[in-house]
Amino acid sequence: MLKITLSVCALGAVLIAGPAAAQAPALEAAGLYAPSAFDLALGAHASELPTDQFIRYACGTNGGPPSRPLAGWTGFAECRPDPSTGFHEVYFLYDNELEYVSKARGLVTQAALYQYTSAYEIPVVASALFDDDGFYVGLRLITDPRVPVALREKGSALGNFLIARYGEGWACEELPRLPGEQPYLGSLIKRACMLSAPNENAVLSLEIHQFRKAGQGAIDLGNNLPTEGQFESSTRFEMMLDGPVENGAARAAEIAARPPAGPSERELLAARALNCPGCDLQDADLKRANLSGAQLAGANLTGANLHEADLSNADLTGAILDGANINHAILRRANLEGASLKNVMLYETRLDGANLTGAAMNGALAGMAHFPGAQLVDVVMIDGDLRAARINDANLSRADLRGTWFDDAQMMRADFSEARLAQTIMWGVNLTGAKLAGADMRASDLIRANLRGADLSGADLTEARLTFANLADTTLTGAVFEDAQLPGGFSRPQ
After folding, report:
1. What is the pTM of this model?
2. I need a labelling partner for 447 at 20 to 30 A (CA). Which of 33, 198, 284, 375 fits?
3. Domain containing residue 69
4. Is there a domain that residue 136 lies in?
5. Has residue 139 been placed in a domain?
6. Residue 225: CB partners within 8 Å, gap ≥ 6?
7. Which of 205, 173, 204, 177 is nearest to 191 (CA)?
8. What's the total number of domains in the chain?
9. What's residue 198's pLDDT?
10. Residue 303, domain member (yes or no)
11. What torsion, rounded to 10 degrees, do the Cα atoms 32, 38, 44, 50 define?
């Protein structure tokens, strides 16, 4: 096998910081930070590693899916030693708060950037390796094969970025090509590289693959149709501590002798919030807190961080949650009657069976939220965002929803009787069997809406757009369609 040494110039790789770096100052100023596996310091003990930036700890499987869930880094000993290294492998993901903030605000580019645990915007399966004493001695990154084809295609590029990151001196060799392997996108790459990196006190290794395996092709020879995903494009990277942990035995003994750590500030705050009606919790950090059944009636939670918190069955009657981050949280059967949720973020939040009667929700960002069976009688959500929300069987009678976006929402059998729906955007919504009697739907946009079996008696659809809408079996007694754009073949009711 031919052995070669690559320099950054010879490789021709260009290290581009990308959008994440450009946004970093603004994110830090806002108290948000995009995590990175490279922030973990080799030689640190599991008890010393940062925890806020990482989630979903589990025993790793050498780049495969997570196995046994762990509470954190310090659970490393629950994982069997990795056969190839003898170390304990802990799988982890990046914290997803930025992803959900971006999704709630409709920032498509940023949401795509933060959606995955990644390196140089290329999704990876990440894991940390710990020795028996709990010291972090290695990082393993393997490009994620579960992502969409367009992202998986970039897998081999990660190797180039990593080679450029750590500079010159890589020793690389070309790996044997097997029978039937063919180039992909004009290249057949099977390369293994090593680097001793004194500045990192580490030894680095990586493998880069880009090719089609035997039997893979751009065209399916069975039907002459284009194939999708038939290629290998991947990078496997390991950064291992070069030598034993300095003073490891003494440090491990000192760490073991420390008294158990007490509850964190966030845990103490969450314990207080469990029974805190009327409390001032403005800007409180209750991220991922277990607040199931909490008594928070009348509490001030303005600007609070409740990302992924569990507030099921909580009493939030009359609470103030203006501007709070409640993305991806659980509020099943929570009581929010009369609560103020202006400009709140509720992206993908579960509100099944919740009571929001009379709640003030102007400007709420609740895309992909779930409201099945929820009570939203008399709710006020002007200029809100309910795109792709699930609102089946919910009661929104007399709700004021003017100017709200409902694109692609599922609202089967929902009750919008006498609701104010003027100038709403309802492209492609499913209102099958919905109750819209007496609703004000003037100038609403219902292109491609499914209204089969809906009750529109007495509804005002003046200047509404119903192009390509399904109005089969609807009840239209007394409905007003003056200057409305109606689907082809539809007879305007007399």
Report:
1. 0.88
2. 375
3. 3-248
4. yes
5. yes
6. 219
7. 173
8. 1
9. 87
10. no
11. 20
